[in-house]
User: Fold this.
Amino acid sequence: MSQRIPEQVVEDVRNNVNIVDIIGQYVQLSKSGKNLFGLCPFHEEKTPSFSVAEEKQIFHCFSCHRGGNVFKFIMEIENINFPEAVLKVAELGNVQVDEKISQEFDSTQSESSKSIRLKKIHADAAQLYHHILINTEIGEEALNYLHERGLSDDIINDFNLGYAPDRPILEAFFKERMVDQELLRMSGLFVERGDGTLNDRFRNRVLFPIRDAQGATIAFSGRLLQKNDKLPKYLNSPETELFNKRKILFNFDKAKSEIRKKHFGILFEGFMDVLAAYRSGVKNGIASMGTSLTNEQIYLLERTTDELFLCYDGDKPGQNATARALELLEPITKLKLGVIRIPEKLDPDEYVKKYGENAFEKLALTSHETKLAFYMRYFQAERNLANEEDQLAYISDVMQKLAGVESPVEQDLYLNQIANRFSLEKDSLKLQLLEFINKTKSKHQVNSARKENLYYLSRSSTDNFPKYSKAERAERLLVYRLLHDPNIRIRMKNYPDFSFIHEEYQMIYILSEGYFNAYPEYETARFLDFIDKEKIRQIVVSLELQNLSKESSDEEFEDCINVIGRQSPLEQQINNLKQQITDAKKLNNIERVTFLTIELIKLLQQQQNDKSASL
Assistant:
C-alpha cells in the first residue's frame, strides 16, 4: 500500500463509498444471488464472469482472475497509481477530500508515462484549435459554418470543437513548450516529410476531438471547410499508441451515464447527428469512427446497456445502411436491437432544423421500432404490393427474418399482421415460417447459445475454482479462519514454529499479523490494501468468494494443523533436492544430477501416494 496518501483519507473514502456504485459507472451489473455480475471490463467475453460481492466490497473475474477492492478496480481500469485511485473513487463517490491532498496527488502532475504525455499533447492541441475557432479572425469562417449547422456556442464549448487553419502552426507551438520531437512524431498530429521535418496533418478543417471512455482527448476527426474533390471530406487521426478506431465510440465518455440511466443507447451515422441530438436533449447518442461497429465497440456497449437503437438517415441510402448494420450486428451481439425511424427521408440534423429540438427529443424517446417492424417497412420499399409476385417476395423476405425471432408471442403478433394485411390463412403462414426456421435452425441455435445470459456461479463449484490437494485445501481453510475468527488467531500462538507449506499462504499469515496489530476487526477490502503482490491478493479474493462455513470448530482446526504438518517436511525435502539439482547442473556434475534426480522421483512418488491415500 502506498504511504504517500494519509491513511485517514483512505479510510474515509473506503468507508463512504459502495463498490457497487463505483463499478456500476463502468460495468452494467445485474443481481444474481448474493452478488452482482456483468461483462468483465478487462477482457472480451460473451457470458458474464465478472462478479462484485457487495457484502465484502470486492470484485473478481472468474475468467481473467483480476480481483480486489474498489481502489484496485480503479487502478486497473484507469491505469493510475494507488493515491490517484483513492482520489478518483472519492470523486466518483462524492466524498470530500482536502483540496491540498487532491492537488498533491493530481494524476496529471504525478504521471510521466508516454501515454500521459501524448494525452497532454492532444489536450494542448485541442485547446489551441478551440481558441483559434472561437477567438480569432482566422477561425471566423469555421465558427459561422458551425452556427449555420445549428450548433450553439455552448455545444461548441462542451465538445471543445476547433479549427485547424490552412497553414502549419503546431510544430512551433510545441517547440515553445519544449516537447520532444520524437513524441510529436508518435502523436499522429503530423505528417513527416521526406526530409524528416513535420507538417500539420489537419489543415483548413473543423476539428472534432475524439475522446476515450474517461474523457481524455486521444485523436481528432477533421471536416473540410470547403469542398475539395482531391481530399477526403473527413480525415481521422492515424492509429497511435492512444488511438485505435476499433475501440473508440464518439461521445461515449459523455453518453455512458445517460445510456445507463435510459437503459438504451442510440447509434448515429455521424458526429454532426450526435451533436444535433445532444442539443435536443438526447444525450445517449454515440457514433462509430466512420465504419460498421466493431467487436470491441459492441463489447463496450454490451457492458453498458442491453438495448441499442439505430438512428440513421431516413433516405434510401440511410435505410440501406440500417439494414446492413442490423444484419452485421445480429449474429455477433446479445444487445436487443431496434430502429428509430425518422420520417420524410430526413437525417437527424435536418429533422431538428425543420421541427425543432423538442420534436426530435420526443422522436428519439418514442419512435422505436423492433427489428421486424423495420424490416417489414424496409422490404416494402420500391415494391408494388398490389402485385402478387411482389407480395410473395415480400412475405418470403419477412418470413426469413421472422424465423430468427425467438419470442413465440412476437412471432404470433407479426403473423397476425401479415395474415390480416394480405387476407391469408394464419396456418399457411405458420407452415412457411416453420420451413425457414428448420433451414436456419443450426445457425439460430448457435446464436441463441451466444446470447444466453448465464452467470458463472450458476455452474458447479468445481468450474469456478481450481482443484487443490488436500494439504492446500487445509492451508486455504486455515488462512480463511485466521482472517475471520479471532479464536483461531489466539490458538495459532500455541504453534510458534508452525509454517505453511506454500509461501503464498505463509505470506498472508505474516501480513495478517501486521494487519491485526493495526486494526481490531477484519475487513476484506481494507486488508487487500496491505498486500503488494498481485498473486497474494488474488488468493485472498478467491478465498473470500468460496462458500465456506462461517463457523469453525476445534476438530477442524486440529485437522488443518495435522494435514499441513504431515505434508510440510516432505515438501521442504523436495524443494531442497530441486535446488541441489540446479546447483549440480551449474557445476556440470552429471553423476550427482543423476543421483539427486532418482532421489527426487522417489519423494515425488511418496508425495503422490500420500495425496491419493488422503482423497
The chain has 30 helices and 16 strands. Residues 153 and 256 are 23 Å apart (CA to CA).
